[in-house]
């Protein structure tokens, strides 16, 4: 009985490994897009299954290493939440300074789009509140008149 597994059940270590894997379709798309950019004439590139697995595993390890280094930067600042600056500092610490400026630009673009979306949402919420206030205002005026009588 000891050491036996239910048929079809996966050991815990295997389940954890699957959770940590990056989505294969996204890795494939990223690799193919980047290889097509450097390939002559943007030709479609065929990638061996083992090579794709190596790319995925390398990316996973890089993300873990970057996360751990950014976490160290966060702890050095006596904070508990990792922010974008921690990640950028971690890239410098890991000796990948060539990634910092492109990521900083992407982050600024993301923030500007996100702020624009947030301001639209805020405006919509403010308009809803204003309408609710306008609808409740006549009711309050009627209640006040009833109290005066």
From TrEMBL:
InterPro entries: CBFA_NFYB_domain (IPR003958), DNA_Pol-Epsilon_Subunit (IPR051377). Its main location: nucleus. Keywords: Nucleus. PANTHER family: DNA POLYMERASE EPSILON SUBUNIT 3 (PTHR46172). It is found in: Nucleus. This is Transcription factor CBF/NF-Y/archaeal histone domain-containing protein. The keyword Zinc-finger does not apply. GO terms for cellular component: CHRAC; epsilon DNA polymerase complex.
């Amino acid at each position: 009985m000891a050491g036996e597994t239910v048929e079809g059940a996966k050991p815990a270590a295997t389940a954890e490994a699957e959770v940590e894997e990056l989505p294969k379709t996204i890795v494939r798309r990223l690799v193919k897009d980047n290889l097509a950019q450097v390939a002559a004439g943007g030709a479609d590139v065929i990638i061996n299954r083992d090579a794709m697995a190596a790319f995925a595993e390398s990316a996973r390890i890089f993300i873990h290493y970057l996360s751990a280094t950014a976490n160290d930067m966060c702890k050095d600042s006596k904070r508990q939440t990792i922010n974008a600056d921690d990640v950028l500092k971690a890239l410098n610490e890991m000796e990948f300074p060539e990634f910092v400026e492109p990521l900083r630009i992407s982050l600024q673009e993301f923030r500007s789009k996100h702020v624009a979306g947030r301001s639209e949402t805020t405006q919509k919420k403010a308009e809803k509140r204003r309408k609710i206030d306008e609808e409740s205002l006549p009711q309050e005026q009627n209640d006040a008149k009833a109290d005066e009588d």
